[in-house]
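User: Structure tokens for both sequences below?

Assistant:
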Amino acid sequence: MSNGNEKVYQAVSSAIVLGLTLLSAIPLIYVISMSLVNEQEWIDRGGFILWPQNPTLIAYERLFQGTAVLQALSATVVRTVLGTALVLLMTTLAAYVLSKRNLPGRKPMLFFILVTILIGGGLIPTYLVVRDLHLLDSVWALILPGLVDSWSVLVLKQFFENIPGELEESAVIDGAGEVTLMSKIMIPMAAPAMAAIGLFIGVAHWNSWFDALIYLDDSKWHPIQLLIRNMFSSSEIGAQFNNAGQHNAFNPVNRVSAESLKMALVVIGTLPILCVYPFLQKHFMKGMYLGAVKG
């Protein structure tokens, strides 16, 4: 390919990528913009706004007037942090043990782990197990059923197997036991893969709502995503937050539309997990690359 053709190719490729990036950013811009308008602007501009003329935080003020949003955020943070930490712990222990090629019964255990990936237990049997373990209406109902992620066990096992055996042999010669070997050598070297797996698990916990709908009657542990789901299915959300007892509550300038409330709650439910991602991006990319290369 000549120099001129190469430049044309690069320009066209960059334009296409830029166009696709802008296209994919439109929904995010729409959600943020809609969360920053009052009812008057929403009515005047026909309900589809990509750039607010008079941005206001009134929707966020209305949402944080009560305790529902803060309670849902707290429940989601507890579930995500506790669930991710415990799943990483159990996954790492299982993966490290299964990475030992001389482990008795290793192949049958790997087979049963693979079966759980291909075949699920089903909703009703899982519910019966959770009920019989007396986990209903507790945060443990959202964590214990998925305490071991089978796919992550296989990925992390492969990562442990890719670590040079000479490191393990030299540590054993120096007198390191299994606990020291795992905690001081293997886990630090597997940190990128664990960060990548932890990100996946954390996002999954943060975005989950269906299990809370099934297992929890008490709203104390309802996550933010379930609150968003309930708000989107409610037809009276605007009247609920536009309290008529407030000053000038009937003035559209001081009111907020139901759509703006919904979009504001979506931003609240999305922003925390977006803020975590940049801190894990470096480890995430490294973990994906190293986990995909054998040797």
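Moving on to the next sequence.
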Amino acid sequence: MASRSARPADPPLRQRNALAPGILGAAALVAGIPLIGGEFAMVISFVVAILALIIAWFAIQARQWWWAVPIAAIAVLWNPVYPFSLDQPVWLAAHVVGAATFIASGALAWVPRPEAAR
């Protein structure tokens, strides 16, 4: 019987540090849609603003500042210190666009793996 080669798989060349916070931020925004205007909307604001700042930092570290700009806008829009008062349909659209931005920036902001640089 032939055995498989014991050769290890090649490691990935890219590292997506912002993917997990992007998925968490998108999930928080989608979960926060029914909470728009409610008493727990402030909790969603804290979660979204913190995750947006984390992704913006990862995008700047990856030298992909074009992802840091829309994510920083999300951090400003959902900041809990100076909350914006927008109409409910506008917040609904902002939640959907924000979730899509979180997923896109998390999936597309990457850095080369340190092992791949050698």
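User: Anything stand out in the second?

Assistant: The mean pLDDT is 89.
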